[in-house]
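Known limitations

Structure tokens in this collection are predictions and should be treated as such. Users comparing against experimental data should check residue numbering before alignment. To illustrate the layout, the record for Sulfurtransferase is reproduced below. The input appears on top and the generated tokens appear beneath it.
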Amino acid sequence: MTGVPDVSPRATWQELAQDQDAMLVDVRTDAEWNFVGVPDLSSVGKQTVLIPWQLYPSMQVNGAFTEHLHRAGATPETKLYFICRSGARSLAAGQAAQAAGFPHAFNVADGFEGPVDAEGHRGAIAGWKADGLPWRQR
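Generated tokens:
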């Protein structure tokens, strides 16, 4: 595989439901998980794996990121779907995962909240929430 392909939130949801080993890795910060919410995978018998790509508040890259993937049970065969707010950090996380020996890394296009709308708000145009996929407050 070359590069980290973008996958729509709905296609990600279908893959997570069909492949019992596929994982959704939310790479946002703990502040975002707590205040914005997280994807809810309980209806497909899973939990979202929470591993920050950058550490709040310094926003330095998490040097133990791939170690955390191993601890979460990821293997080189695991399909890993990375999600962040809008798709940028998750792309970087997917690239790091591929470089660390996880070739099946995917970027959830438009992330959890997607781009801002005309009023400057996220969550309405595109992304996990806008697509009506399950999520919950943490």
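For this record: The first helix runs from residue 9 to 18. The chain is about 25% helix and 15% strand. Please report discrepancies through the issue tracker.
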